[in-house]
Write a structure and sequence with these properties.
Elements (H helix, E strand, L loop, with lengths): L3 E6 L6 H7 L1 H9 L2 E6 L3 E2 L16 E2 L11 H14 L3 E7 L1 H11 L1 H4 L5 E5 L21 E6 L7 H9 L6 E6 L9 H16 L4 H8 L4 H9 L4
Parallel strand pairs: 1-2, 1-5, 5-6, 6-7, 7-8
Antiparallel strand pairs: 3-4
Pfam family, one: FSH1
Keywords: Hydrolase
Protein name: Serine hydrolase domain-containing protein
């Protein structure tokens, strides 16, 4: 039996391996629910003045497009993600992105029928709507996939207003907003991870045959069931 697949898109000046390490708790929790996580390196290898911190020069770091540009070409980034998606065919059910990777994930979710038709849901950590005006049409009509938008109340890199623009580009009945008290990072503690996994379980339940739902519930621990009941209430 094939596993369900999730694509993880890291933030600027990270890499697949770094993002995997930073989301270890989430990755392991998703594995228990039958998901395989696949982390994709950004299409842009960063060097020299493209890095924010010179101490990072010893690491292989990537982005999806040049940071801070008013306009940018996302086609190389799309090609990189779609190349990974094609390896897994219809098994790719979800996409999770952080920061710049969250912005790219949002654009893919907005046009999922064109790029990854098998997608059932998307999670954006500090994700934002692409600002160049030529992307406006990508979000019309609004994103129809179930979407979870996670923002840090102390995030000074991607401010709340930018996260909310992507939230507003999602259908009212399909979107959920979740806040944490930290800054620009993906929370990896058990309680928060449970909320993310609970939302994913809840988002995919309606797409599964009724006959399988009870069996699936039997494999969910009490913490996750409680999280499902409380998701979106705060």
């Amino acid at each position: 039996m094939s596993s369900k697949k999730i694509l993880f898109l890291h933030g600027y000046a990270q890499s697949a391996s770094i993002f995997s390490a930073k989301t270890g708790g989430l990755r392991k929790a998703l594995k228990k629910q039958g998901y395989d996580s696949h982390y994709v390196n950004g299409s842009l290898a960063l060097k020299g003045d493209m890095l924010h911190d010179s101490t990072d020069e010893d690491l292989d770091l990537y982005g999806w497009w040049v940071y801070g540009m008013k306009d940018y070409d996302i086609q190389p980034a799309l090609d990189q993600v779609l190349e990974e998606a094609k390896k897994h065919g219809d098994e790719v059910e979800g996409i999770i992105g952080f920061s710049q990777g969250g912005g790219l994930s949002g654009a893919i979710a907005a046009q999922y029928k064109k790029y990854i038709p098998s997608l059932k849901w998307a999670v954006f950590f500090s994700g934002f709507r692409l600002m160049p005006q030529r992307f406006d049409s990508w979000y019309e009509p609004k994103i129809e996939l179930p979407t979870l938008h996670v923002l840090g109340e102390l995030d000074t890199v991607v401010e709340e207003s930018r996260v909310l623009k992507l939230y507003d580009a999602s259908q009212d009945e399909k979107r959920t907003l979740l806040k944490h008290q930290g800054g620009h990072y993906v929370p990896n503690n058990k309680d928060f991870v449970n909320k993310i996994v609970a939302w994913i379980i809840d988002a995919t339940k309606e797409k599964e045959p009724e006959s399988t739902k009870k069996d699936d519930d039997d494999g969910i621990d009490d913490d996750l069931l409680a999280a499902i009941d409380n998701i979106g209430k705060k």
